[in-house]
Write a structure and sequence with these properties.
Chain lengths: ~250, ~400
């Protein structure tokens, strides 16, 4: 289970006296249980990617913390990373190598035994339908193949928590389905999955619970029925737009 | 921690040594560039020298009369040279000078009217010899004619002395090395040390240049390139410490640097043959120079820490830069500074200034020079090693701080 508590992230824009502090994430708290897919929704600049980058330990929260079991991002960076599989759309792989080589390499960096790596490779290559291109250079692969490779590599160490930022961004419908089906199967096997997305259709189909993030703050949280119940909206998209469109009920 | 660095190093090395283009840049180019350059320069030089010596220079002698018997001596001496002599009157002096300027004439000799009388009168004759220093043929003709006329001058002086009953030996107070035995040489330098000095002057310069050039080729891409391509974040979210990443990358840059330095050293050793050919009168023989095993160990003790220092410096710049292009812009002034250090060390005499022995990079270059000249002192070798490693440790520490600073690492 992942627990986020009062997470804040501030950035300083500019230099000297003209520098301004921008709160990208403000007092964010949520929990994501095992076997659950949690969707972090929000417009561009809402703080979704910043939140996920804090959870990946790529950047440090200004305050607050996040836990997986007894490990937290501030004090146990390396152990925390061993529990997560993280991927964003701006993370790329070295195109000179093959998916097979990169899987082995990342497996070694994650302190895995050779037999564990082989076992995990076999499973991921099969689940993501990658066997046809694992010995081709990544540079020679299509966008979808590269994304599948990145997904497989981020999960080589079989992490408890999967954190994907826009996992279907830029993918065709077939690859997109392969990735989302894969995430569902991971959740069904007891993993905790957190994704951020703009795509409400995918979110509704995929996620068990949602958090709507606007200007760094969590505006709504719960399952689809929780959010819609007692409101005048009948789908997630309407709720989302009510927070971001001019004239929306919550704007 | 070190195990992770080795895993990173292995991947970087695989990348380096399986990419043909990179292998060519890192290994082949430093190896062949100097021999190719010097062999081409040597060949071009020999061809040019051959052309100059076989060329028949056009020489004009400007005088209103041929000045009698003694003046004839000058004309006879000119006939011994590969020159075509034309005579002209003093009224054509200006037009002849213009021909020298225009390179239609290599040399213009102006003789006084009364040359014969001046010589027999024991007075000093002043000949004017005009040439054009921008023309190779003109300069060569000038040198030849001046040397030939010096012989003529000696014979006139001898003749004058004989006429007054004196021996020409009176003009010579002493000679130098004229009566050395056939198996004796005046230069008592140890065998190989002359070549060692030649190599010692040039080798440290080329070694530091290639250490830096190869570090740049690999090091800038190592972090700045990964930032630019978005591959660094993929590495950072795994169970590897940032110190391991810095050390792994530094080691890979160091290997590239050392490979370049060793290739360029072998290249320079081969190129020395052509370099010596270019100055054929130097009397130096490349086969006389050998490096013993202790010198090779000393070389490694100095070059490896120097490579670590330079790799750390390049890695620091690479970490700070947003992308490879920015890194190249930042590293260029440092590269020029290192080149200046190399040139400065080339020009120091046998006893370099004390500050040079204290400063990192400088002291390594000075010690390398000593090693090639086979007079290195272990104290200096170890001191240069210590200063290089200390400076590298400081740079690695700063790089590590940058790796932990998201403002530096993600300011894309």
């Amino acid at each position: 289970m992942l627990r986020v508590e009062k997470l804040c992230k501030e950035f300083r824009n500019g230099r000297g006296r003209s520098a301004k502090t921008v709160k990208a994430v403000n007092n964010l708290s949520f929990q994501c249980r095992s076997g659950e897919i949690y969707g972090l929704l929000g417009p561009n600049g809402a703080g979704k990617t910043t939140t996920l980058r804090c959870l990946s330990t790529l950047i440090k929260p200004s305050s607050g913390n996040a836990w997986i079991d007894k490990y937290n991002v501030l004090e146990h960076g390396q152990m925390f990373r061993s529990k997560i599989g993280f991927l964003t759309s701006d993370m790329k792989l070295d195109g000179y190598f093959t998916p097979d080589y990169m899987m082995n390499w990342f497996g070694q960096l994650n302190k895995m035994q050779e037999s564990q790596i082989e076992q995990q490779k076999k499973r991921l290559f099969s689940d993501l339908q990658m066997t046809d291109f694992i010995h081709k250079k990544i540079d020679e692969l299509s966008t979808g193949m590269k994304q599948k490779t990145a997904v497989a590599i981020s999960l080589i160490h079989d992490p408890e928590v999967i954190i994907f930022d826009e996992p279907t961004n830029g993918l065709d419908i077939v690859t997109s389905k392969a990735v989302t089906d894969f995430l569902v199967s991971r959740a069904e096997s007891g993993k905790t999955v957190i994704i951020s997305t703009h795509n409400m259709t995918i979110a509704e189909k995929l996620c068990h619970r949602f958090g709507i993030l606007v200007d760094g703050e969590l505006k709504e949280e719960g399952s689809l029925s929780d959010i819609i119940q007692g409101s005048s909206w009948d789908c997630l998209e309407d709720v989302f737009f009510s927070y971001i469109l001019p004239g929306g009920d919550h704007v | 921690m070190f195990k992770d660095s080795i895993i990173i190093l292995r991947k970087e090395l695989r990348r380096m040594f399986t990419d043909r283009r990179l292998v060519f840049m890192l290994v082949v180019l430093p190896l062949v560039m100097l021999p190719l350059m010097y062999s081409f320069m040597g060949k071009a030089n020999r061809t040019r020298q051959g052309e100059i010596t076989s060329y028949t220079s056009r020489v004009a002698v400007c005088s209103d009369s041929r000045g009698g018997e003694i003046s004839e001596l000058f004309f006879q001496s000119l006939e011994l040279l590969n020159v075509h002599v034309e005579t002209a009157g003093l009224d054509q002096l200006d037009s002849l000078k213009q021909r020298v300027v225009d390179k239609n004439l290599e040399l213009l000799i102006v003789m006084p009217d009364d040359t014969g009388d001046l010589i027999t009168d024991n007075t000093v004759l002043d000949l004017s010899v005009f040439y054009n220093s921008t023309g190779d043929y003109s300069k060569f003709a000038f040198d030849q004619v001046v040397a030939t006329f010096a012989v003529v001058s000696e014979s006139i002086v001898s003749q004058r002395l004989r006429e007054i009953g004196m021996s020409e030996d009176i003009l010579t107070a002493y000679t130098i090395n004229q009566y050395l035995a056939a198996d004796e040489t005046a230069d008592l330098a140890e065998e190989g040390s002359v070549m060692g000095k030649l190599i010692g002057i040039m080798m440290p310069f080329f070694i530091v240049i290639y250490l830096f050039a190869n570090s740049m080729k690999v090091g800038l891409d190592s972090v700045a390139g990964e930032k630019e391509r978005g591959t660094l974040a993929m590495l950072l979210v795994n169970q590897v410490s940032r110190l391991s990443i810095v050390l792994g990358k530094m080691l890979s840059v160091m290997v590239a640097a050392i490979v370049g330095a060793v290739s360029s050293a072998i290249g320079l050793r081969i190129a020395s043959r052509y370099l010596i050919d270019m100055s054929s009168d130097s009397g130096v023989n490349i086969s006389e120079y050998t490096m013993g095993s202790s010198a090779i160990i000393q070389f490694a003790i100095v070059v490896i820490p120097l490579a670590i220092l330079i790799s750390s410096l390049v890695l620091l710049v690479s970490t700070f830069a947003r992308n490879v292009k920015e890194g190249q812009g930042m590293i260029m002034p440092i590269y020029i500074a290192v080149m200046v250090m190399g040139v400065t060390t080339m020009q120091t005499g046998d006893v370099p200034p004390e500050w040079m022995r204290m400063a990192p990079v400088f002291n390594s270059l000075v010690v390398l020079k000593d090693i090639f000249m086979q007079n290195a002192v272990w104290g200096n070798i170890l001191f240069s090693m210590a200063t290089s490693l200390l400076a590298a440790a400081v740079l690695i520490f700063i790089t590590l701080r940058m790796f932990n600073d998201e403002r530096v690492l993600f300011r894309i």
